[in-house]
Amino acid sequence: MLNIDKNSAVPVYEQIYRQLKEQIIDGELPSGSRLSATRTLAADYHISRNTVLTAYQQLESEGFIYSKVGSGFYVEDLPEIDNSAARETIQSETEDEDHDVRYDFRYGNIEPNIYGTRSFRKALKDALSELELKTSLSDSDPRGYLSLRQALAEHLLKVRGVVASVDQIIITCGHHYSLKMISEFFPREEYRFIMEEPGHQDTREVFLSTGYHIDPIRLDENGIQVNRLSRTRKALAYVTPSHQFPLGYILPFSRRIKLLEWAQETDSYIIEDDYDSELRYKERPIPSLHSLDRNDRVIYLGSFSKSLSPDLRISYIVFPRKMKIEQLAVHPLLNSSSPALIQLTLEKYLRSGEYLKRINQVRNSFRRKHNLIIDFLKKNYPEQIKIYGSGGGTHFILELDTKMSQKQLIERFKKNDVGVYPTKGFWADQSQSHENRIMIGYAGIPEDQIEEYLERLKTVIDEVLC
Amino acid sequence: MLNIDKNSAVPVYEQIYRQLKEQIIDGELPSGSRLSATRTLAADYHISRNTVLTAYQQLESEGFIYSKVGSGFYVEDLPEIDNSAARETIQSETEDEDHDVRYDFRYGNIEPNIYGTRSFRKALKDALSELELKTSLSDSDPRGYLSLRQALAEHLLKVRGVVASVDQIIITCGHHYSLKMISEFFPREEYRFIMEEPGHQDTREVFLSTGYHIDPIRLDENGIQVNRLSRTRKALAYVTPSHQFPLGYILPFSRRIKLLEWAQETDSYIIEDDYDSELRYKERPIPSLHSLDRNDRVIYLGSFSKSLSPDLRISYIVFPRKMKIEQLAVHPLLNSSSPALIQLTLEKYLRSGEYLKRINQVRNSFRRKHNLIIDFLKKNYPEQIKIYGSGGGTHFILELDTKMSQKQLIERFKKNDVGVYPTKGFWADQSQSHENRIMIGYAGIPEDQIEEYLERLKTVIDEVLC
C-alpha cells in the first residue's frame, strides 16, 4: 500500500522509492517477496509505468531488490537492521576556542590588512582572468605553478641572494607543510635531526611526529654553537641564522662559514628557515646563509605569512640542486596543495613590483610599533625587565623580575584581558627554560590602538613584578 | 681605500659596507686589524660620521667586525673562505613535464569552468569584503572556518543524509591531505589498513608512506566482499561504496549493513570516500554509508574537486563523534591549510544556494558527455570492447580486444596525441590487473569538441584492436 500525492513537491517516483525502501527496511516487505509488477502498480495509482520503473531501478541500484528476467522484481535477502538506536541530531555545540582577549600580543598576527588594498585586488583580478580562460580545469603542477616559481626565483635572487632555478622550488601551503615535506623526503633511519635549543616548537613537533630523533644544540649569545655539532655523518640541521627563533640572535659570519663546512664534511644538509629576514629595524636585512653556500648543502625555507597574511597559507622550499625534485613531486604528500587562485594572485603581485612596496610598508609599520613598545618598556622598567630578540621580526622575549611561574604569569595577564604567550615549549629540555620569560608579539596590534595596549600591558606588569 | 660615489643610486653607507665586507672576505683586511676610526673615515671622504657608523654596525651585526669600547672596530677572526668555486647562475632548465596531448582523456579534469561565473565572483567578492574588515590578520582555526563548517554541515545533512556537528568537521587542502591526516591520527601499530582491490592508488601510497601494512580485499561484481574481511580487531577500511573507484560498482544495501556491523564488532573504522556521489546519470545519488551508521564508525571524506574545480584544493573530513577533534587540532599536521579567502568564498557559495545549481549544471554536462561517448563506443564496437563503471562519475574503464600491453597501448594513443591512462596502479597485486584495460576520463572534454575527441579516439582504437 503506497501513499502517492501527485501534488507534492517530491516527485512521484521518489515517493514510491522512499516508501518501498522503508517497507523493506522495516520488514513489511520480507526478503524474497515479489514486488507488484510495474504495469499493475502503474494502473493502480494512475501513473506512468516509467515512473514505477525509475523507482524500482533506484532500489535495484542500491541493492534492495533484484530483477529476474521475465519474472519481475524481488526483495533482496537483507541482514537484520538495528533500527532501535535513535539517531542523534546535530547539536550546535559551543566552540571551546580560547576566549579571545581584548589586548592580544599573539605572535603570528599581522596588521595592516592586505585584502582591501588596490594592488592585491588587481593581482587577484588578473589571476581570475587567467583562470577563466582555461578550457579544462585540472589540478596544477604538484610543485606549484611554473610562472609563480619563476617570479619567486627572480625575487629571491634580487632580495636574498638566493640563486635557484625553478626546478628547485616547491610551493607549499604553509610552513608546517614545508617542514613535513622535508621530514618525509629524507629517510629518518639515515638522518639525525639537529636543531637550535631553544628553537621553533612546531618544527620539533613535526620532526618528532615523523619519527626523527631530535638532537638539540644549545645557543650562546651568538646563536647556535657550531663547534658543538657532532661529526657523525648525515644530519639535517635546522637553523634560523638571520634572526634566531625565538631569541633573535644573528649568526655571525664566521659561524656561518663553519656551519657550511660542517655540512659538506659530514654529508649533511642545513635547513635555513628565513622566516622573517626582511624585517630588520636598524640594519639592512642580513644576507641569507644560502647565498654563501658553495656546496649545495642548504635547503631554504620562506613564507609570505609575515609580509602578506598568515591566512594565505603560502610558503616555499628551495631544495638543493642535486636533489631530484622530479622524484619529490611524485611522493603523495609532496604536492603544493596551494589553490591555483592564490598562487596566480601571488605571481601577479610579485611581478607588479607591489610586493617590494608591501614589504616596505609592513616593515615601517612593524618598526614603529617595535620602537614604541621597546622604548615604553625600557623607560618604565629600566631595572626590572630584560628584552631578548628586539631589533627585527615581529616579537621579542620579555624577562620579568618576578617569582611567579610562567603559567601564573600568563593567567594573570589573561585575567586582565591581555594575551601574552609561553616560552617553555621552545625548549626540548623544558627544565632549562626560564619561568619568568614570556613571548610578546606586536605585529598584529592596530597602530592607532598601540598606546592603549601598552597602558594595559603596564598595568599587569606592575602587578606581577617583585 | 674605498671608492665612494655620492651620485650613485646605491646609498653611501651601503657602498662602504659592501667594499669593506669584500676586503675582509678577500683577506685584504686581515683578522684582528683595526678599521679606520669613524671620525677619520668621515673626514677623508667628506661624509657624515653617522653614515660610516651605519656601515660599521651592519658589518658588526653580520659578524665581520667587533667593537671594543673606546678603542674602535676590529676585524673578526674568520675561517678560510673557499671563494674559488664559481657560483652557477640560474639556468632556465626546460621543464620535463609530460608533453601535453591535444586530446586528453585525463581523470580529474573538469569542464565547465567556474572562475568566470557571476555566482563564483560574487562569493569571492563577499569573502574579500569580510576579510578586509579584520583588524588583525591571523592564522585561522586549524579545523577550518567555523562558518564554512556550519554551511557544510547543513549541506551534507540535506544532500547526503550525513548528520554531523561542526565539531566533527575538518576542512583540508585536498584529498591527499585528508588521507594523510587520517593516516597520522590513528596509531599505525594498532590499526591494519584494509582497502578495495583494485582501489584508489593514491590512497594506498599515502598509507604505505605512513608505514601501514595494506590488506587488499578483492571485489566481486557487487564491490568489496564484506565476508572476506578479517575478524581481527582494529582496522581502518577504506571504501568507495557509492561508486567504487575505479570499477564503478555500487555497494548493495545488504553489504553496507554487514560492513557497518563488522566495524562495530571489530572496533574498526570505515573510511567512506564519497568522492563523486552527486554524479549519477540514471538514478538519484546513492545514499551515503554514513547515513546508515548507528554506531559512529564512519569517517566520511568529501571534496569539491569534481563539482567546483580540482585546483581549488579544498576537501573535508567528517570524523566520528567520539573522536576528540580538539586533540586532532593540535597535531602539527592536522591543520586545514586552506587559505581563508578560499574557505570563505566556498562558504558564501554554499549559502547562496548556487552550489546546488552548480552541481546540476555539472551533472548535466558530464551526463551529456558520458552518454555521447558510451553510445559512440557501443555503436562502433558492439563486440570488441567492454566498459566498466559507466553510469556515474567522471571516468570509466575501457577493455579492448587487443594483444598489446598496457604500456604499448598508452604509448600508441599518445603518439596519436590522445591521452588515456593506465589501470595497473590500482592493484596492490599488479599481476592481477588486465593489460588490455585503460582508464578514460571525460569530464574535462570541452562539450563543443567532443565529436572531434571521439573521432580521434576511434582512429587509435581501430589501430590497436585485434
What would a concise description of this structure say?
Two copies of one chain form a homodimer. Chain A has 466 residues and is of the alpha/beta class.
Secondary-structure map with pairings?
The structure is a homodimer of 466-residue chains.
Chain A: H1 12-26, H2 38-45, H3 49-61, E1 65-68, E2 72-75, E3 103-104, H4 118-132, H5 146-160, E4 169-172, H6 175-185, E5 192-197, H7 201-209, E6 214-220, E7 223-224, E8 235-239, H8 253-266, E9 269-273, E10 298-303, E11 315-318, H9 325-330, H10 340-351, H11 354-380, E12 385-388, E13 395-400, H12 406-415, E14 418-419, E15 421-422, E16 437-441, H13 450-464
Parallel strand pairs in A: 3-14, 5-6, 5-8, 8-9, 9-10
Antiparallel strand pairs in A: 1-2, 4-11, 6-7, 10-11, 12-13, 13-16, 15-16
Helix pairs in contact in A: 1-3, 2-3, 4-10, 5-10, 6-7
Describe the fold and architecture.
Two copies of one chain form a homodimer. The first copy, chain A, has 466 residues and is an alpha/beta fold. Chain A folds into three domains: 79 residues, Winged helix-like DNA-binding domain superfamily/Winged helix DNA-binding domain (Arc Repressor Mutant, subunit A), CATH 1.10.10; 127 residues, Aspartate Aminotransferase, domain 1 (Alpha-Beta Complex), CATH 3.90.1150; 235 residues, Type I PLP-dependent aspartate aminotransferase-like (Major domain) (Aspartate Aminotransferase, domain 2). Chain A contains 13 helices and 16 strands. In chain A, α7 links the parallel β5 and β6. In chain A, α4 crosses α10 and α6 runs parallel beside α7. The longest helix of chain A is centred in the C-terminal third of the chain and has 27 residues. About 3% of the residues of chain A have low confidence. At the A-B interface, α3, α4, α5, α6 and α7 of A face α3, α4, α5, α6 and α7 of B.
